[in-house]
Amino acid sequence: MILKNKYFYVAFLLVVIQQALVGLSTYFIGLAGRFAYLEPGRSFYYIVIFFLSIAACYVFGSSSLYFRVKLSNSVWSDYYRNTLTRAKEVWGVNSAKNKEMVSHWIIGESLPTIEEASFYYVEIIALYLNVIFTVVALYAILGTMITISLLSCMVVSLSLILLTKKKVKELSTEIQSSKIEAFRAINKIWDNAFFGMKKHFEESLVNSKDKEKVYFDNQLKYKLIEQVVACLPVMTSIPLIIYISHHTVMMHPYIMGSLVAVLPRSLQLYQSIHAASMHTTQLMVIRSKVKNLEHFHTTLERADFFNDADIRIKIHCHSSGLNISPTDLCGVLFSDSADPGRYTITGPNGTGKSSFLKKLKSQLTNAILVNHENQIGVNDDVGSSGEKIMKSLGRLFADDAVRFFLLDEWDANTDIENTKKTDAIIEELSKKSIVIEVRHKKSIER
Q1: CA-based, 20 to 30 A from 240: which of 31, 77, 153, 217?
Q2: 21-58, pLDDT tens digit by residue?
């Protein structure tokens, strides 16, 4: 997903150049320190090259950050479209609960995860390249022994990363799932605050507190592992580097100038190793999150809309005045010569009238299904739910490309006057299209 994006390769190339320049600048400042006393003119020459290298580093580093933003924008844009396209292929996931879940996931989870991943995927490369190029430069300036002592820090770091890899992956999944649960618990507070009693509101607060505690506890467990992995290698290698540096300077006094000159870079090297260790554990978390993003659509709850319709469902054909079965209606709809008309689905609550409409929608390509849970088109209708569905129907009825209109309780929140007006429009529409409706009101005064 991220590694296949063209902006990743651009950002990758830029950080390679940037970190190569960092290594060269370390080499140049080391040479400047070596010649500072005996050849100040030559030393100044290397100082000038050092500053030019640093200036170029900032240019390439800033360019890389710019393309990381383009990377995250591009990946997220592709991701949410692909997720919704994949979900559309499985009609069983069509539910209000899944709609809320997908919305939370795309906005609250996938967006920050992709932004993090776009940064860390490139940043981890930059950090390891920084360590490699800096170590090479220090080897050229200070020799073998000091370089080996620096590498020991990295070896300890990688060993700790491997030891904690399994636990970090487990925590990453737990953090992601507990975060979503905490968000869902917060939504419940709103409904209970305004529409429930005081005890319901208090229960929702307690429930939310429990969910957030699980999320926070998982975060803290991960952070503890992360910091141990990041700090322990540095703490264990510092005594070694001090001892070897002292031994090397005693044997080769001329190295002292170079050693002093590169001390700031040695400090930055430790910071890079610390950051690389920390980012590597974070990258394991992020990779697990990204993997979960790719498979999210498969975790949605699925309902079976394709069972045989309940025998208690009756369908009234307005043109003939007769009641027909769901099977008879399907026979009419899927025939090439289906005539325009209006059909009203009736039956007790819980018999699957709405599910039957969803089943029809999944099998009819030039059909739309309108209910109070969805909004078809890109217009943002305002007003009450009844007003919004009236505006939506007004637009959709004017679309000649729609052959089948599936209306699920379109009159649930409309007053008598608007119900009469819309009913008359539907009756007129049924002369050129096929309208199949589930009514909320059993009858209206005509």
Answers
A1: 31
A2: 988 988 888 888 878 877 888 889 989 999 999 999 99
Q: Is the dihedral of CA 75, 78, 84, 87 positive or negative?
A: negative
As a dihedral over the C-alpha atoms of residue 339, residue 342, residue 348, residue 349, rounded to 10 degrees, the angle is 100
For the chain, the structural domain boundaries read 6-299, 314-438
Q: Side chain identity at 352, as an amino acid letter?
A: G
User: At how many degrees (to 10) do helices 353-363 and 326-333 cross?
Assistant: 20
Q: Calculate the CA dihedral of residues 184, 188, 191, 195 and round it to 10 degrees.
A: 160
Three-state SS letters, 206-272: HHHHHHHHHHHHHHHHHHHHHHHHHHHHHHHHHHHHHHHHHHHHHHCCCHHHHHHHHHHHHHHHHHH
Q: How do beta strands 434-438 and 367-370 pair?
A: unpaired
Q: What is the DSSP string of 49-112?
A: HHHHHHHHHHHHHHHHHHHHHHHHHHHHHHHHHHHHHHHHT-GGG-SHHHHHHHHHIIIIIIHH
Residues 130, 235: Cα–Cα separation, whole Å: 20
Half-sphere exposure of 219 (CA within 13 A, CB side): 9
Quote the distance between the C-alpha of residue 90 and its chain's center.
Answer: 21
Q: Using CA atoms, how far apart are residues 281 and 436, in angstroms rounded to an integer?
A: 56
β-pair partners for 435: 342, 405
Q: Which residue has the higher pLDDT, 16 or 299?
A: 16
Per-residue exposure over 170-200, b if at least 16 CB sit within 10 Å of its own CB, e if not: ebbebbbbbbbbbbbbeebbeebeeeeeeee
Helix (H, G, I), strand (E, B) or coil at 167: helix
The whole-angstrom separation of Cα 362 and Cα 315 is 19
Give 141-200 pLDDT, tens digit per residue. 777 776 777 777 777 777 887 888 888 878 878 887 888 888 888 878 877 887 777 888
Q: Is 423:330 a contact under the CB 8 Å cutoff?
A: no
Antiparallel, parallel or unpaired: β 341-346 and 434-438:
parallel
User: What is the reported pLDDT for 304?
Assistant: 64
Indicate the class that CATH gives domain 6-299: mainly alpha
345: enclosing H helix or E strand: strand 341-346
Q: Helices H, strands E: what count in the chain? A: 11, 6
Cα distance between residue 248 and residue 20, in whole Å: 27
Q: Is 331 helix (H, G, I), strand (E, B) or coil?
A: helix
Residues linked to residue 324 through DSSP beta bridges, in sequence order:
315
What CATH class has 314-438?
alpha beta
User: Could you tell me the pLDDT band of residue 273, with boundaries at 50, 70 and 90?
Assistant: confident
